[in-house]
Amino acid sequence: MGETCTRAHLTEAVYRKLGLSRTECASIVEFVLEEMSARIAKGEKVKLSSFGSFLVRSKGRRIGRNPKTGVEVPIEPRRVLVFKPSNILRARINHKNNGKVE
Amino acid sequence: MIKSELVECVMRTYPGLYQRDAETAVDAVLDAITDALANGNRVEIRGFGAFSAKERRSRVGRNPRTGQRVPVAAKRVPMFKASKEIREALNQDGLGAPRARKTAALSAGVLGAESRGSE
Q1: What is the largest CA-CA distance in chain B?
Q2: What does pLDDT average to over chain B?
Q3: Residue in B47, B7, B14, B1 with CA at minimum distance from that of residue B29
Q4: Rounded to whole angstroms, how far apart are CA atoms B71 and B60?
Q5: In angstroms, rounded to a whole number, what is the distance separating the alpha carbons of residues A23 and B101?
């Protein structure tokens, strides 16, 4: 396993594609992430074709358990973010680079 | 929001960019994440979340219609874990009520149930 990909790598990727300064590219990357976060926080769906969708799901109240002590704890209703990867992303991760799903 | 709307937002904020460039920028970000995962790396974006790929072993599946056994090859599946910031932002409006009153009854050092995301 190589190094973890961070914001800096995303900035570098944008920098390689666009003829802009690194500062500007970093600002664009930051804006894209902020915009996505803001939409998600509002409960909005974010669908990025060929990558995947970020969906907000509402979960009902249920009884959980502290795995260490076995004590029952109520888990209150909450909203969670789920990422649903597209078939293209799934395929690319398995090195089927055309992204086609058989 | 879909990708083209995200591209429009980028253009509105950076009026100097052509639409083509805004698209290139958004795609570059997504492609960089995809490539990192394809190369076996983790992607960690502080404040947003982390992407990783999990190994799945090969198994014998079944065609649900015919009941026939079919081999399912080993594969890697993408995973995403949302940042604490996002998880909290989604639940600050009272929809996910905080567990303030229960906490006192439990022993110190108990894990916050809501931050464990079991599913």
Answers
A1: 58
A2: 83
A3: B7
A4: 5
A5: 46
How buried is residue A78: exposed, middle or buried, by Cβ count under 10 Å (0-12/13-18/19+)?
A: buried
Looking at chain B from residue 25 to 44, which residues have their Cβ under 8 Å from any Cβ of chain A? 25-26, 28-34, 36-44
Distance CA B104, CA A39 (A): 34
Q: B50: which 2 tokens?
A: 């982390």
Nearest to B14 among A28, A66, A79 (CB): A28
pLDDT tens digits, one per residue of B13-66: 999 999 999 999 999 999 999 999 999 999 999 999 999 999 999 999 999 999
Q: Do A50 and B95 touch (CB under 8 A)?
A: no
CA distance A11 to B95: 35
DSSP 8-state secondary structure symbol assigned to residue A81: E
Q: How far is CA B16 from CA A15, A85, B12, B13, B20, in A?
A: 16, 32, 9, 9, 12
pLDDT, one tens digit per residue, over B62-99 is 999 999 999 999 999 999 999 999 999 998 865 544 44
Angle B10-B12-B18 (CA atoms, 0-180°, nearest 5)?
70
Query: Within a 10 A sphere around the Cβ of B57, how many other Cβ atoms?
Result: 8
